[in-house]
Write a structure and sequence with these properties.
Structural class: alpha+beta
Shape: globular
Helix content: 10-25%
Distance between the termini: 40 Å
Order of helices and strands: HEEHHEEEEEEEEEEHHHHE
Low-confidence stretches: 7-22, 151-171
Amino acid sequence: MLKILRLFFLFGLITGGINHPGLYGQEKEGMVKYTPDFKFKDGIYLNFDEVKANSPIPKAKLLTSIDYNDREFFKKVFEGEKIYFYDNMGIRQEVAKNTIWGYSRNGVLYIQIQDNFNRITFVGNICHFVADITTYDSRSYNPYGYYDPYYSPYGYSNYYNPYGSYYSPYRQPNMSRSELKQYLIDFESGKVLEFDIDNTELLIMKDNQLYEEYVKLSRKKKKDLMFLYVRKFNEKNPLYIPVEQKE
């Protein structure tokens, strides 16, 4: 699948001039180059298109009794399962909280992953963030807490049940644990990808020079320099954001 995607991007390089200088740097009226001082408009972003347009639902259009100046405004708004607001036509709307992309507070973006909102600490045409993810494990553990797929206190690994399948008396279904995972966001498409070598290659492929440099590295070097090449990509291909809110 990755090879197919690579071929797709390489085709774009040839036919669309993707690697021309200023790939993302075509400054347009009403847009500014992103810098660390840039502040996104505060409010709730229903989807990534609203992020790209810098056009969220502002606090003033949300139906809530929470004080707009409350430091935990968004945390309290998201305590409910639904968000209520007035659209641009003044019509009352509602959306489920778990369908919302995220929000901006004090100009900083927060993306929703597994019902939690995570700060995007590095913004560019390739964004980077860290999220606290819950994973589930249904493997078997012995009484000492170690994973052992063959363990059974009765001298054999599994019991046979009347329904024709096997089960382990020490199998603990849906054991959960939290772990920090790193992610990338392709600001062109809004896709969220795990931060690994393959996805780094896939995203920097749009800059042929950087891509050729990166693929020549050893796998260890690739892993060590993933973030460096993401940063290089963003420096060569700056992100431009609209500053005028769409009405």
